[in-house]
Specification:
The complex is a heterodimer.
Chain A: H1 2-32, H2 39-55, H3 60-88, H4 92-113, E1 129-132, E2 135-138, H5 139-161, H6 163-173, H7 175-180, H8 185-211, H9 217-232, H10 237-257, H11 265-277
Antiparallel strand pairs in A: 1-2
Helix pairs in contact in A: 1-5, 1-6, 1-8, 1-9, 1-10, 2-3, 2-4, 2-8, 2-9, 3-4, 3-8, 5-6, 5-8, 6-8, 9-10, 9-11
Chain B: H1 3-18, H2 25-50, H3 58-74, H4 79-103, H5 106-126, H6 128-131, E1 137-138, E2 144-145, E3 148-149, H7 153-176, H8 178-188, H9 190-195, H10 200-226, E4 228-229, H11 236-249, H12 256-270, H13 278-292, H14 296-309, H15 314-320
Classes of the chains: A mainly alpha, B mainly alpha.
Chain lengths: 291, 321
Amino acid sequence: MASFIQLLVSGLATGAIYALIAVGFTLLWQTSQTINFAQGEFVMLPAFFVLGAMSIGAPFWLACIIAIGLSVLTLGVVFKFAVVDPMLKHGVLPLVISTIALAVFLKEAVKDFYSSQAQPFPTLVPANDIHVLDAVVSTQSLAVLAVAIVTVVGLNLLLQKTRLGRSMQATAQNPTLARILGIPVRRMVLYTFLINAVLVAIASILISPIYLAKFTNGETLGLAAFIAAIIGGFNQVRGAVLGGVILGILDNLSAAYVSAQYRAAIPLLILIVVILARPQGLLGRVEERTV
Amino acid sequence: MSRVGVAALLLAAALAVIVPFFLKPFGIYLLSMWAVLTIAAIGLNLTLGYAGQISLAQGAFIGIGAYTTALLMQIGVPYALAFAAAGTLCFAIGWILGYPALRVQHHYLAFVTLAFTTLVFLFLRNEEWLTGGIYGISGIKRPVFFGWSTAKPLDFYFFCLAVLVALSLATWWMLRSPWGRAFVALRENPIRALSLGVDTRRYTLMAFAIGSSLGGLSGALFAPLVQFLEPASFGLNRSFDLLLMVIVGGSGYFFGPFVGALISVLLPEWMRITEGYYLIIYALLVMLLMMFCPSGVIGLFERIQRMMRRRPSGLAEVQTS
């Protein structure tokens, strides 16, 4: 039982990080039909911004802020205007291909210009263990969980309670109507890209102490984000959160109770089952079809 | 086909036969690899370019075909039979995997096939009793036909080239048949195709299954070409690479995969001088190509040709769009 609680907490922590990545992924899909195959690499990169900033003398907290700023600039603004915008008129497929190429580009760039070795990464809080009901829970997991919850709740408040958030939702649901109502659709789309950049930067800072900062990190993280987004529901922020949490817990439990060799297979099998049985995802709505 | 096209085709065919005589074994190996991967890319082009379904499973099908061939040959099955078995098995698996294509929109198929590729990789890596796990299978022999041994690089290259030509002709014939027309109809407007009486369900499955079986046949050549199989050769990167080949060459163009595979096989060798930066440059080139000409290199050539002629050619545009 004790180990179950431990696995559950660490699973929730991983799941919360997956959820952040998956939420960003669905936001981009909802507002601009961008399937970002480079999302995993987007999470890999900000950790190196942090390390870069620290290597020129910035303290950790400042380095984190610099990294979030840089990632908003590169993964938000530059990505939107240099990669996505010129491609949108060509339809979904060229953009998919282009983000696959972008993933390769980011991975190789980090490998060649920073390092191909895994880099140690500072933790948010000093490593410590807390005893709860004879289970040992690391403060790190709790810190990760806290940051992730604050981020998701904050994002939800932004989307649900503010005028800006509701305009973004309107843009996602029906861009034409939103434009008629006087919502600056293009700016709203840009905002989702910026939000995605912030989310991946936070996820990067949370996950890198666990996985170490390495140029190949994106491969598993990207896959986890796709799967979480699809399990939960591609067109719902809530769905992506649920999917991420389910995936994180499952990942940890299956490593302990199923087989370590086929651990990676379990999320994939669930993905296939969900797509076949409920393609709109657990919380998703059926998308409208247009002829 | 235009006159320029016929001339280019004849020239390319002549080069494919003559050039290898002047190459070192490694050059011949690369050309053989080109022929083998082109077959898989033709299959993917059928699925993607003609039937409009994004598949990230073609690398896995090469793997299934290669392992099937190698394992069957190990227990003494003649190569020709193993070759046929690889194609048939991949056809069947493709048919089963194609069912999701009917249920969900196309970007979901990308994810189903992505999951499938990873599952196949895990299976190849973990089921050591069958596949040798990470140690793989080595010492795969090259086939002998009626006393003609293909053990030497040049002989094996011509064998691959012959298979490529045969399969291309078969695909060409199929695309000109009512079947192929139905594939194109699926891509252009599935709802209209359905209302015109095309059984979209069956044709989508068919396109996917035939594409997969070409992947399997490519694997059947891959095994004796590299003579050593390991799971890592058939991971997600291989599938991404094949997808890029088809798109870079020009998806939906018959000769797109030939060009795409040539670029993907030769470019890394030519760009040895750039040392480690090859992939960065390749990725940037792909992104630029997608930005300015999503119809790939062949589409680019077509556009240049049209610009040089500088006369209204509305008909040609309708055909190629």
